[in-house]
Amino acid sequence: MLKHLIDYVHTINISTDVDVKYPQITDGIILKTEHISKIFDSQAGRVVALNDVSLKVQKGEFVSIMGPSGCGKSTLLNMIGALDRPTSGKVYINGLDIFSLGYSDLATIRNRLIGFVFQSYNLINRSNIQTNVKLPAIIAGMSESEANYRSMKILKALGIADKAKQRPVNLSGGQQQRVAIARCLVNNPAIILADEPTGNLDTKTGADIFDMLKILSKRFHRTIIMVTHNPDLAESTDRTIVMKDGRIEKETYN
Ligand SMILES: Nc1ncnc2c1ncn2[C@@H]1O[C@H](COP(=O)(O)OP(=O)(O)OP(=O)(O)O)[C@@H](O)[C@H]1O
Ligand SMILES: [Mg+2]
Fold first, then answer.
1. Which of 35, 49, 121, 169 could serve as 75's disulfide partner, Cβ 3.0–4.6 Å?
2. Which of 135-147 are b and which e, b meaning 16 or more Cβ less than 10 Å from the residue's Cβ?
3. pLDDT top residue among 250 and 218
4. For position 108, what pLDDT does the model report?
5. Closest ligand (CA of 68)
6. Residue 16 predicted with pLDDT over 60
7. Cα 178 from Cα 156, distance rounded (Å)
8. What is the spatial distance between Cα 124 and Cα 128, in angstroms, rounded to a whole number?
9. 53 CA to centre of ligand 1 in angstroms
10. Rounded CA gap, 64 and 29, in Å?
């Protein structure tokens, strides 16, 4: 499987670096959060999910995030991935303050530059697997035939091409996780945000996905932030950030 994954990465053109109108990805700090906090106010009470998190990530860096359940890992990824606004503080991608952008520019950044693997997959249940995977490519303006070609190639590489016409609900958790990974990669994003991307996979498949992420970072200079509960995986990333109660408790360069 790993060989096919690498082959996929080689064959998709690395065009996202140049065809995005907004931040041209250069070397150096690709991602920065400045004192971000996120407070959820609901009937159930007030939760400080993030508390003054400042972080800088280099282009091509592979960062792992660890920490107990509820410490704010997914919330942090949501802020970096422009899915939700921080209550205070700023997020910069390549020097650009992303929350200063209008809705449509922000959507473009999300679609072209960022690939997200959600903890709960977030697949569209009324669409089949192939449609789920190719949707970001279609939104990015890719032709139907190129999007079909890419989506089938990545599904094949991930060993689930035979599920292309099925709906997510008919797949196992591990298979749905692979669909979510395929969708994340289809536009060859500069930044990959992956929330426990191997949490539901068998050891071998998980190891292959992890090795592919490493290759994406080392050989293709993709920037990766991965949440994991697996200390062995975390240790083989460039840097491990440990969170606690919405804060960065510790950072280790591995
Ligand atoms: N939409 C929301 N509304 C209210 N509270 C929320 C919301 N999203 C997250 N929280 C709260 O914010 C805190 C951080 O949640 P988050 O999902 O970031 O944790 P996590 O570190 O990803 O945990 P896990 O390892 O279980 O996935 C938790 O206390 C959670 O209950
Ligand atoms: Mg989470």
1. 49
2. bbbbebebeeeeb
3. 250
4. 86
5. 1
6. no
7. 11
8. 8
9. 15
10. 17
38 versus 94: the higher-pLDDT residue is: 38
In the block, which residue shows the tokens 């920037």?
223
Q: Which atom of ligand 1 is nearest to the CA of 38?
A: 12
Fold of 2-253: Rossmann fold (3.40.50)
Contacts of 46 (CB under 8 A, 6+ apart): 39, 40
State the Cα–Cα distance between residues 52 and 33, nearest whole angstrom: 9
Report which bound ligand comes closest to the CA of 39: 1
Write out the two tokens for 103: 């809705």
The residue whose CA has the least distance to atom 28 of ligand 1 is 70
CA 148 – ligand 1 centroid, Å: 35
Please name the helix (run of DSSP H) or strand (run of DSSP E) that holds residue 231, with its range, or none. Answer: helix 231-235
Q: Taking residues 193-205, what's their average pLDDT?
A: 91
Name the closest ligand to CA 76: 1
| C-alpha–C-alpha distance, residues 73 and 49, integer Å | 9
| pLDDT one-digit tens code per residue, 18-29 | 344 455 566 689
Residue nearest to atom 29 of ligand 1 (CA): 70
Task: Round to whole Å and give the CA distance between 185 and 191.
Answer: 10
Q: Tell me: pLDDT of 15 over 50.
A: no
Burial 224-245 (b: 16+ CB within 10 A, else e): bbbbbebeebbeebbbbbbbee
Minimal CA–CA distance to 4: which of 155, 135, 221?
A: 155
Can you tell me the mean pLDDT for 50-62? 96
What pLDDT was estimated at residue 254? Answer: 93
- Strands in 43-113 per DSSP E: 45-58, 62-66, 88-93, 96-97
